[in-house]
Amino acid sequence: MSELQQLGQILLQSIFAQNLVFIRFLALCSFVGLTANFNSAVGMSWAVTFITVLASAVSFLVYHYLLVPFGLEYLQTISFILTIAVFVQLVEIYLKKAIPSLHRMMGIYLPLIASNCMILAVALLNITEQYNLLEATVFSLGASIGYAIALIIMAGIRERLVYAKIPNLMKGYPLIFITSAFIAIAFMGLQGLGR
Fold first, then answer.
1. Which of 40, 153, 159, 181 gets the most CB atoms within 10 Å of its CB?
2. DSSP at 19
3. Has residue 55 been placed in a domain?
4. Rounded distance between C-alpha atoms, residue 180 and residue 175, angstroms
5. Can you tell me the distance from the alpha carbon of 40 to that of 158, in angstroms, rounded to the nearest whole number?
6. What is the DSSP annotation of 52-113?
7. Is residue 194 part of a domain?
8. Measuring CA to CA, which residue among 56, 24, 43 is closest to residue 146?
9. Residues 6+ away with beta carbon under 8 Å from 179
10. pLDDT tens across 28-87, in order?
11. Does 39 reside within a domain?
12. What distance in Å separates the CA atoms of residue 141 and residue 127, rounded to the nearest whole number?
């Protein structure tokens, strides 16, 4: 298999077959909290994509060129969290200055990107899967695209459900999680993709 085919396989699997929201059930906090509005879902998707790709690339470099040579592999989680927090702060400063309306719309969920378990999971999976830097970057991009697809699909559904007649018992979280379960089943059908 050529390197380009392998990168394509990593990308497709990280978007669909290993979707971190629907298959591994990570990042559900922002998934539920930011899908009530389509614009906030798109904004969060861009922010998470930027942070995930850059933070995982820097985490890869920190792990392989700082932690491993000095025998400090046990510090990987804390070093990855610090790296992610730095990028989150940079994004928050930028959004506050450049796009204040998006900054207000994302509210508390923007600083919570630092504790978004999906971003940390991507950095850790890059190490456990023993990807090289290019493969790790492709995996990070694919995981971010998968996260964006999950948010945008759910935001579109939730905006349509505003006009639907829903029994009181099902309004809110019950309907969100039932809908998510059906989408997850559809994504599970893509498990063989890229093999």
1. 40
2. -
3. yes
4. 8
5. 13
6. HHHHHHHHHHHIIIIITTTT-GGGHHHHHHHHHHHHHHHHHHHHHHH-HHHHHHHGGGTGGG
7. no
8. 24
9. 154, 157, 161
10. 888 888 788 888 888 888 888 989 999 999 999 999 999 999 999 999 999 999 999 998
11. yes
12. 15
Place of tokens 């969060």: 44
CA distance 95 to 78: 26
Question: Per-residue pLDDT tens for 160-186?
Answer: 888 888 888 888 889 999 999 999 999
3-state secondary structure 126-191: HHHCCCCHHHHHHHHHHHHHHHHHHHHHHHHHHHHHCCCCCCHHHCCHHHHHHHHHHHHHHHHCCC
Number of domains comprising the chain:
1
Q: Is residue 45 part of a domain?
A: yes
Nearest Cα residue to 133 out of 48, 61, 69: 61
